[in-house]
Amino acid sequence: MISRFHFPDVLPDGGELALPESIAHHALRVLRLHDGDALVLFDGSGVEVDATLVVRGKQGFARLGTRRCPERESPLKVVLVQALASGDKMDWIVQKAVELGASGVIPVQAERSVLRLTGERADKRHAHWQQVAVAACEQCGRNVVPQIEPILPLATYLQVSVDVARCVLAPEASSALTEVPRPADALHLLIGPEGGWSDAEMAMFSRAGVNAVGLGPRVLRTETAGLAALAALQARWGDF
């Protein structure tokens, strides 16, 4: 399998370019690639470029070749609105959501979220999750990197997302996910934290016009629910 790398700037048409230190280190020291090995570079615009690794001393360069614009984005635009989860669960959720074709992830602070992040810690974690998304694109073949938004309080999210279709997963919901009509544009899918949404939050959703839907009779973990819903929606309307 040819190694893929996200290039942080716009890729030029042909020629040779120096690889950023992080890419060169990963290619030469981690993957143990050699001079003349094949690479694929992508810059997030939907373009990917065949390249050949050129090694000069400790520096890595890429000799650019054929440009392609393969369509690997799902026709279904689903944004995962994920209540903050503890430990490394958020990394897992972001990684798998990107693999499953999510067009974005919005982390929200919920009442029962175990993880609490503000200020510099929130900024660092947000930057980390964006890099998790980049790495997931490198692995799964996507050439457009989904945006991971900064952390928002749940109430703030509800105020700024009034113009999009929104569904909240809730075990007690009377409607099933399969009853949701196909959205005309993007669909925001709200996933609760480990302890679930509080009664006050469910009341907020009702007042904000967010549809509550269920995923069957079993209660799923926060790191399972959103990904299961994404896969189900991709099978209905996406590219599965």
UniProtKB/TrEMBL annotation:
It comes from the Bacteria. Residues 19-59 form the Ribosomal RNA small subunit methyltransferase E PUA-like domain. It is found in: Cytoplasm. Its EC number is 2.1.1.193. GO terms for molecular function: rRNA (uridine-N3-)-methyltransferase activity. Specifically methylates the N3 position of the uracil ring of uridine 1498 (m3U1498) in 16S rRNA. Acts on the fully assembled 30S ribosomal subunit. This is Ribosomal RNA small subunit methyltransferase E. It comes from Parazoarcus communis SWub3 = DSM 12120.
